[in-house]
């Protein structure tokens, strides 16, 4: 859609079917909301999510140690927004449809066939091939497009898995007599415990903490995700050390919503583009970052708009090589 704003024709290829539902919610900060506003979807989106300004940091004694302004209308022009992924995805898809941008579902990129100074040819797992001036790989942390640019780089596990669930705010036991700030990140001996409202009225909350855990292969992570009893006991490790509000959350976990989030990052890459400059990666494919910042999707959004702006301004004075170097550096 960012490319479309500059009349750059593009086609999206997505491996999943259009019926796939995205789970969970995202925090979106003003850097990305500003861009979604340019697409004309922010006003609608903000009515469909939980708007907030600050994330409170507390210690195990419930003392507020810091307030982080994730969003603020006066400072940044926008509040922060916590919105279900599926809501955002639906808005983006509807906008793409309205703009006439084709999305081809169940089409999995496989490999680059050839690259020249004129363009790139690439193949899908169904055996078909396409060619284009540029191929942009916005295909996530396990990007196959990245393999073409840096074949030996693999995402690095940080040794930590987050365990999360979606619970009811009404089940929490708040300390009496104070206006308890949410979202909150409580820090104690056990690490961090996060409570973040979601849904328009914030009646549902994400609850999460993290545990050191050995790296698993795909089957191992799937098995851990499926083992709700194991997840529950991991989640409740040393729960007596958390303040009462966290304990009350842990006592009221809807086990079917238990989920895991192994922390992986993409090591810093020298280039986000191929030597021929016709294959470019962005978002998590290029720079999946530690999840605690709540910035991965926001930065992926920034990537797409900044890249589109540069591509639209290419000229003999601003060749593709220089533009891409500048884009990655900034
Ligand atoms: C539990 C959790 C919570 C998070 N919370 C936040 C948050 O609050 N705020 C925030 O900003 N970020 C958050 N993030 C990070 C955020 O989800 C990612 O940074 C963001 O989704 C990256 O976007 P992307 O488009 O680069 O990749 P993705 O969202 O991974 O999208 C990649 C797409 O490419 C498709 N694809 C993959 N391979 C192929 C292929 N070979 N061919 C065709 N299609 C393919 C995939 O199906 C997918 O649709 C969170 C992440 C997790 C796991």
UniProtKB/TrEMBL annotation:
Keywords: FAD, Flavoprotein, Monooxygenase, Oxidoreductase. It comes from the Eukaryota. This is FAD-binding domain-containing protein. The keyword Flavoprotein applies. Gene3D superfamilies: FAD/NAD(P)-binding domain. Residues 3-149, 269-313 form the FAD-binding domain. GO terms for molecular function: FAD binding; monooxygenase activity. It comes from Elaphomyces granulatus. It holds the Pfam family FAD_binding_3. The lineage of its organism: Eukaryota, Fungi, Dikarya, Ascomycota, Pezizomycotina. Belongs to the paxM FAD-dependent monooxygenase family.
